[in-house]
Specification:
Elements (H helix, E strand, L loop, with lengths): L1 H16 L8 H14 L5 H46 L14 H6 L3 E2 H4 E3 L5 H14 L5 E2 L5 E2 L6 E3 L13 E3 L12 H9 L2 E2 L9 E3 L5 E3 L2
Parallel strand pairs: 7-8
Antiparallel strand pairs: 1-3, 2-6, 3-4, 4-5, 8-9
Length: about 230
């Protein structure tokens, strides 16, 4: 009985002190241990419970390791894509915005003009962190991929509605952020740089919406377009 009590006390002490390898339902296992000690038949219940706890812990570690390996693989793919995109941008490649699924490609193939993104670039003094906000506002407003006609009307990429025309210039405008870069060949060649500059001056661009403007975007991505 003394040895039984000492064995039970030792296992209870272990169960209370264990940090990483804890035995689930330890009280039931200790009750089984007390019965087992009288017969010594079969495996020590606490040893069996401990082995089961170890197996569960190893399975958990294996699942976590697999999840981390998959996350590392996905991050590696994303990193490769970003490196490839950076290389394309540094090489001067223009990346077109996503094509709206509702657009009839033949319409632009037959129309004079070009998308706004193909006709402009950021001025050299515009800080890098501000460019993302301006581009996001242009994309959200529909201006980024809008079709610029030679006469100065700007057509929405999806609805084909006129969303911008030459208007009175704003004191703080897109012309302070973007500069015309009309290509020498293709549809963009039919657009006059003076007309494009006037369009850019028609769109206010400031952190806060100016008073009495019809079209405004902010470097942080906000937009206001008046038809």
């Amino acid at each position: 009985m003394i040895l039984s009590a000492k064995l039970l006390a030792a296992w209870r002490h272990y169960a209370d002190a264990a940090q990483a390898l804890r035995i689930p339902e330890v009280d039931a296992a200790l009750d089984e241990l007390e019965l087992w000690h009288t017969t010594l038949s079969g495996i020590n219940p606490m040893r069996a419970a401990l082995d089961c706890a170890l197996q569960l812990l190893e399975q958990d570690f294996a699942a976590r390791a697999a999840a981390l390996a998959e996350e590392r693989r996905l991050l590696g793919l994303e990193q490769d894509e970003l490196h490839a995109e950076r290389a394309r941008l540094e090489a001067g490649e223009d990346q077109a915005p996503p094509l709206p699924y509702t657009r009839d490609a033949s319409i632009r193939a037959e129309a004079a003009g070009a998308p706004l993104w193909q006709l402009v670039d950021f001025a050299s003094h515009v800080p890098t962190d501000a460019r993302a906000g301006v581009e996001a506002a242009l994309e959200a407003s529909g201006l980024l991929d809008a079709w610029v006609l030679p006469e100065g009307n700007v057509i929405h990429a999806r609805t084909h509605d006129v969303i911008l025309t030459v208007r009175p210039p704003s004191a703080n405008s897109l012309a302070d952020w973007l500069t015309p870069t009309i290509p020498d060949v293709g549809g963009g060649a039919s657009i006059d740089a003076h007309t494009l500059s006037a369009l850019l001056r028609s769109v206010a661009c400031a952190e806060h919406e100016p008073v009495d403007v019809e079209t405004w975007i902010s470097p942080s991505g906000q937009i206001f377009l008046s038809p």
